[in-house]
């Protein structure tokens, strides 16, 4: 359970799944994986057509040393689109800006046509941005459908059992906006 404490100490409370939920994902979802070393902790779902990074945590002492970029490179070798959720930049929280810079540096772009808003256990809503990397160009409508699948198979996996509710109904938390034509 040390790995869970590491995640819980770093990620915002509203983004954390319960230990029992993550345990069930790891044990009972063949596509959900946990990689743990002293340098990093990675939890992700590998679907047939894409990878969804649920959590990536690099040991604080190793940040800036290339560990995170190496983890991302290893995922890119699967030659599938990679999706993940990132908090919007908050000038009050330096780590939010560092995360965005890290993903941008590693070739990720923001799915600016997808609005993603979740509800925390206390009823407050929070927004996350979907960042993605693809080996070849993919329309954001396809990213939207991949994210819907991640919500269904990861966020909502036994969520009623663990939280008493569906955590991320794609029809309610995701919205695909039309691109702005210039």
Describe what this molecule looks like in 3D.
The protein is α+β, with helices and mostly antiparallel strands. It has one domain: Gcn5-related N-acetyltransferase (GNAT) (Aminopeptidase). It has seven helices and nine strands. The strands form two sheets. A six-stranded mixed beta sheet has the order 1-2-3-4-8-5, sandwiched between helices. Strands 7-6-9 form a three-stranded antiparallel beta sheet. Strand 6 and strand 7 form a beta hairpin. The chain starts with a helix and ends in a 6-residue tail after the last strand.
Query: At CATH's second level, what is the architecture?
Result: 3-Layer(aba) Sandwich
What would you report as the Rg, rounded to the nearest angstrom? 16 Å
Q: Which structural class is indicated by helix and strand composition? A: alpha+beta
Q: Note the total helix count.
A: 7
CATH level-4 homologous superfamily: Gcn5-related N-acetyltransferase (GNAT)
* Overall tally of structural domains: 1
């Amino acid at each position: 359970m040390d790995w869970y404490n590491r995640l819980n100490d770093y990620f915002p409370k509203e983004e954390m799944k319960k230990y029992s939920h993550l345990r069930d994902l790891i044990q009972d979802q063949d596509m959900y994986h946990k990689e743990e070393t002293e340098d990093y902790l990675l939890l992700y779902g590998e679907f047939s057509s894409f990878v969804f990074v649920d959590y990536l945590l690099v040991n604080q002492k190793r940040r800036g040393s290339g560990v995170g970029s190496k983890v991302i490179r290893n995922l890119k070798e699967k030659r599938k689109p990679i999706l993940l959720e990132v908090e919007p930049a908050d000038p009050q929280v330096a780590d939010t800006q560092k995360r965005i810079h890290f993903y941008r540096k590693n070739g990720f772009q923001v799915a600016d046509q997808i609005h993603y808003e979740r509800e925390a256990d206390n009823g407050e809503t929070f927004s996350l941005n979907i960042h993605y990397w693809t080996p070849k160009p993919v329309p954001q409508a396809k990213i939207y459908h991949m994210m819907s699948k991640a919500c269904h198979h990861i966020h909502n996996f036994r969520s009623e059992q663990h939280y008493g509710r569906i955590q991320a109904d794609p029809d309610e938390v995701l919205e695909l906006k039309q691109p702005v034509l210039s």
